[in-house]
Design brief:
By secondary structure, this protein is α+β, with helices and mostly antiparallel strands. The chain has 6 helices and 4 strands; from the N terminus they run H-H-H-H-H-E-E-E-H-E. Helix 2 (15-38) packs across helix 4 (61-77) and helix 2 packs across helix 5 (84-97). It is globular. It has a 4-stranded antiparallel β-sheet with strand order 3-2-1-4.
Length: 153
């Protein structure tokens, strides 16, 4: 995609979409640094605060789609190339900031003699930031991964 086409697409984004894109661009590398400094468990516990439903009484599917799209755009077009765990943590946090309860899922597989892990986010059982067949490629843990010390709702 040329720079001109990218600029035209960027100009078509609404102000709220631009806000989410900028937040995603900043949060992705910050998440990587925080994982290195504090570890996954502490960062996840900080992100997975109980849902306060600050903005909406009921999640709106359009908001979920927009947030997922902006995190994906920042991941694919930004200067920093995050891994699946970093992308999923940022998506989870931005969704929860909008009062949208979602789950972090982690799956594993053995390929070419080595163990591989993969992270993704689900909303009401629907995979948001990966293809719907991710559970066929990676055997997920029995349930959503919950942070230590935070009760699930």
């Amino acid at each position: 995609m040329s720079a001109v086409n990218s600029w035209r697409k960027l100009k078509k984004l609404s102000l709220s979409e631009l806000n989410l894109l900028v937040r995603s661009l900043l949060l992705l590398p910050l998440t990587a640094v925080c994982i290195k400094l504090f570890g996954f468990r502490r960062l996840y516990a900080a992100i997975a605060f109980p849902n306060k439903k600050w903005y909406y009484s009921e999640p709106i599917k359009k908001d979920i789609y927009v947030i997922t799209r902006m995190v994906s755009l920042a991941s694919n077009r930004g200067l920093y190339r995050p891994n699946c765990l970093q992308k999923s943590l940022v998506l989870l946090w931005l969704l929860r900031c909008q009062g949208i309860e979602s789950d972090l899922r982690i799956g594993v597989r053995k390929q070419d003699g080595s163990l591989e892990a993969h992270a993704w986010v689900e909303y009401e059982g629907d995979v948001l930031n990966d293809s719907s067949d991710v559970e066929e490629r990676f055997a997920p843990f029995a349930g959503a991964i919950g942070p230590v010390g935070v009760k699930s709702l």
